[in-house]
Amino acid sequence: MSDPWAEFADDTRVVHTGQEPDAATGAVVPPLHLASTFRQDAVGTLRGEYEYARSGNPTRNAFEQALAGLESPGAPAQGLAFASGLAATDTLLRTVLRPGDHLVVSDDVYGGTYRLATTSYADWGVAVDQVDATDLAGIAAAIRPGVTKLVWVETPSNPMLTVVDIAAVVALAHEGGAIVAVDNTFATPVLQRPLVLGADVVVHSVTKYLGGHSDLVAGALIAPDGELADRLRVNQNSLGAVAAPFDCWLALRGVRTLGIRMQRHCASAAAIAAMLAERPDIAQVSYPGLTTDPGHPLAQRQMAGFGGMVSFRPEGGPEVARRLVESTRIFTLAESLGGVESLIELPAAMTHMSSAESARPVPPDLVRLSVGVEDTDDLLGDLAQALSIARGTQG
Ligand SMILES: *Cc1c(COP(=O)(O)O)cnc(C)c1O
Cα separation of 332 and 180, whole Å? Predict the structure, then answer.
């Protein structure tokens, strides 16, 4: 089904897409349906479309419609909600890969995606190659026509924030007979729409920006109406890693403020990246919004904003980085990202430990920020005071 809100701006659509007032009562918020099963009036005669909640649930359905409308405003698409981002990834990989197939993964991806591909799927006889997805010639060389079934990219990537040319990767992959999945967790559909750029399926960790409040774990796939979407829908039910109704309800609540949250995340992240780039005690800053960032020209074409994630390397090595992440007051030392509260972490020792043996291990002194919606000046001040402590110039 096409999104009836497609003609409106993003900030309107996040509030209304998939969130029509309840047909039965007029309630302006979609109700939370916890029932696991639905009465049949006669054998096989359902009152509506629901029969058993793994197969379908009205609250999950509302969230899935919102996802489809946001990622694919112009063309009919299916949204599918899962118990986690990795459950969504696993369902996608099991739907499109068979033993003997080949998977190409960009070399800077979420650590859990890398682990799933190189352990479970490698054990199952799927060959996996990691490539620098910013190098299109490298991608072209890695694709084995007819054998490579899937090219997986994450952009901006976690945690290095590299930007990959989605349309160019799609052209190369399709030429070689492979489909393209884009992990759109960092950008969200408000900043980037991979399906509109030709990707075959979008993956989300709903846990992050879509949920937005660090209070749920869920995942999603979105694919244009068609054969792939139908197979994913069958496997969502038969593999069974579905999102719980309450998590879908919370995620829908989160999505309503996605537009204004992303505006603030982007504005504060830009201010923080600019501040860090000017400091002599910072060796390197990665943020696609910085005009000096290698991904900037592409991000400007491909994205409507540069996101709320910033990575940087302080001078002084891993010890300074470790003291820094332990010295902030507003930024909380924790894994995950995309919530209203600012988080800080050391990926090499926390979220990305499993990337140590990968083609591109995360630098041990890399600090990753998830910039929240607190006051921008408070956040700038917090980083400045923590840097003073970390450098030993105070406290
Ligand atoms: C967190 C994350 C995932 C995995 O999602 P879960 O909800 O934790 O299973 C996948 N991709 C990216 C980019 C992530 O940040």
Answer: 35
DSSP-derived pairing of the beta strands 282-286 and 219-224? unpaired
Among 18-27, 34-43, 97-106, 348-357, where is mean pLDDT lowest? 348-357
Q: Which two tokens stand for residue 380?
A: 């700038």
What are the CA-CA distances from residue 74 to residues 12, 71, 80, 140, 287 (Å)? 15, 9, 18, 30, 30
**Site to substitute for ligand 1 among 163, 204, 207, 352, most atoms within 8 A of C-beta:** 207
pLDDT tens for each residue of 206-264: 999 999 999 999 999 999 999 999 999 999 999 999 999 999 999 999 999 999 999 99
**Helix H or strand E encompassing 152:** strand 148-154
- The CA 379 to ligand 1 mean position distance, Å, reads 25
The Cα–Cα gap between 208 and 390 comes to: 28
- Of 110, 131, 168, 106, nearest in space to 298 by CA: 168
273, 310, 323 from 370: Cα distances, Å: 12, 7, 18
User: How deeply is 171 buried, as exposed, middle or buried, from its count of CB atoms within 10 A (0-12, 13-18, 19+)?
Assistant: middle
* 343-345: strand order across its sheet: 282-286, 309-314, 367-370, 343-345, 332-333
* pLDDT of res. 1: 60
Percent share of the chain, pLDDT over 70: 98
Measured between alpha carbons, how far is 274 from 132 in angstroms, rounded to an integer? 26
CA distances to 68, 320, 389 from 13, in Å = 11, 44, 44
Q: Is residue 267 scored above 60 in pLDDT?
A: yes
Which protein residue has the closest C-alpha to ligand 1 atom 8?
A: 85
Query: What are 368's strand-pairing partners?
Result: 311, 345
Q: Residue 2: its pLDDT value, please?
A: 73
How many Cβ atoms are within 10 Å of 32's Cβ, its own excluded?
Answer: 14
Residue found by looking up tokens 């967790």 in the block? 185
Percent of the chain that is helix, strand, coil (3-state, to 5): 35, 15, 45
80: which strand partners?
221
Measure 86 CA to ligand 1 centroid, in angstroms.
6
Return mean pLDDT, the chain. 95
Q: Which residues have CB under 8 Å from 377's CB, separation 6+?
A: none
CB atoms within 10 A of CB 363: 18
